[in-house]
Amino acid sequence: MERSELTRLLASEDEATAGARDALVHGGEYVIWHEAADTRSLTRAYDRRLRHTRRTGQETLGLERTVQILGGHGQPVRLGQVNSPDSSWAFMLFLAEDGRKLIACTGVKRQAR
């Protein structure tokens, strides 16, 4: 997927999507995987991640909303990732199976190493 097309898909103004778009526009690296993933398993995985980040205090954007959206989506999704240029944030993208629509987006602030 071309950077310009992905930027267009990230038109929502929610905080996570805006952060992903900003990272992409400013040169962040990205990848979109071609295989579709089952939303049931993704919902379980990201619900566990939500509980973990709450316990540890790790900063996230849109994670609770993403879990809710995935839980009600019921269709396979394609995954993507955008990293901020300074690698301080990673944004996970959940796209429609055909890649033409953004379903949800979440961001996680990476722990300093």
Write up what this structure looks like:
- This is Nuclear transport factor 2 family protein.
- It comes from Streptomyces luomodiensis.
- α3 (39-56) packs antiparallel against α4 (63-73).
- Helix content is 42%, strand content 29%.
- The mean pLDDT is 95.
- The chain has four helices and five strands, in the order ααβαβαβββ.
- It is globular and about 35 Å long.
- The protein has one domain.
- 32% of the residues are buried.
- Strands 1-3-4-5-2 form a five-stranded antiparallel sheet.
- The protein is α+β, with helices and mostly antiparallel strands.
Topology overview:
Elements: H1 3-9, H2 15-25, E1 30-37, H3 39-56, E2 60-61, H4 63-73, E3 77-83, E4 89-96, E5 102-109
Antiparallel strand pairs: 1-3, 2-5, 3-4, 4-5
Helix pairs in contact: 3-4
Structure in a nutshell:
With 113 residues, the protein is an alpha+beta fold. It is built from four helices and five strands; from the N terminus they run H-H-E-H-E-H-E-E-E.
